[in-house]
Amino acid sequence: MSWLVTGGAGYIGSHVVRSLSAAGLDPVVVDSMASGVRGFVPDQVPFYQLNILQTEKLVEIMKRHDVSGVIHLAGYKYAGESVKHPLLAFEQNVTGTAHLLEAMESSRVHNMVFSSSAAVYGTPNEDLVTEATGTFPESPYGQSKLVGEWLIRDQGVAAGLKHTSLRYFNVVGSGSDELYDASPHNLFPLVFQALNAGKTPKIFGTDYGTADGTCVRDYVHVADLALAHVEAAKKLEADAPLEPVYNLGSGDGVSVRQIMDAVAKVTGIEFSALEEARRPGDPARIVADGTLAARDLDWKMRHSLEQMVHSAWKASARR
């Protein structure tokens, strides 16, 4: 029995794959390689390059490897860019999820852990977001993730799919020096790229209604996130009860400017960030309560902000 990881050659997916292996669960990776890195997948892990829109091939893989569950991370993950490319976001995140669910039903695979997002909340009115907070996404990306949750929920009713959706906040750091965040849009890679090029990092938006005017987010370490995925997979396989959604957040907000200060301290490179206009689709503040995940998924913050920056900075040197 094995677990299929869609998007398993990506930054988060590769950490999940390694955590599955460490827990004694056999991972199988499917990735389109639109943003994945082949070297992130260990040689001993079965790997298939294909898009999750390819239903028949997914069925073949699930049957070949006796797949018992799917951790679904594949998708288009850029909130700001999705405003420019909404059709792409919906094709990958909604249509792709529907094809994956179809393949799972055909293969009689009944367990799913879904990579959702804090973007489903939009800009909440509460200082601390819980799973009961209203969902009002402000970007096509956030909308597509919410629709993905609905599809999975409805398939649970229709076909007995056991599932849970994990709503991520800002994922940073590295659990292994060779696994780096390759995104061209995420904050840490952009900051490190600028510093390595002798340029000054940028802050997008300094006029938000926050303490220092910059966006406030929950920053969580990717290795902690991966462990929560594995725990969810184990619970589903054991038929243990799980909530339909969980927030994976720290409960503490960190501003972009605070991140810049931590980067300067860890790298030893002093700089004053350039201030640019806001990006479309970026809410001012999202900070989450992870109490339910702590109760059911052994969720906890095992790394400080400086440890997150330090591990990410070391891994970035491998790019």
UniProtKB/TrEMBL annotation:
The EC number(s) this enzyme carries: 5.1.3.2
GO molecular function terms noted in the UniProt entry: UDP-glucose 4-epimerase activity
Top-level EC class: isomerase
Regions annotated as coiled coil: none
Swiss-Prot/TrEMBL cofactor(s): NAD(+)
Catalyzed reactions: UDP-alpha-D-glucose = UDP-alpha-D-galactose
BP term (GO), one: galactose catabolic process via UDP-galactose, Leloir pathway
Domain NAD-dependent epimerase/dehydratase, chain residue ranges per copy: 3-249
Annotated keywords: Carbohydrate metabolism, Isomerase, NAD
Pathway: Carbohydrate metabolism; galactose metabolism
Pfam families, alphabetized: Epimerase
Gene3D superfamilies in the cross-refs: NAD(P)-binding Rossmann-like Domain, UDP-galactose 4-epimerase, domain 1
InterPro entries reported in the protein's UniProt record: Epimerase_deHydtase, NAD(P)-bd_dom_sf, UDP_G4E
Family designation: Belongs to the NAD(P)-dependent epimerase/dehydratase family.
PANTHER family assigned: UDP-ARABINOSE 4-EPIMERASE 1, UDP-GLUCOSE 4-EPIMERASE
Protein name: UDP-glucose 4-epimerase
Originating gene: galE
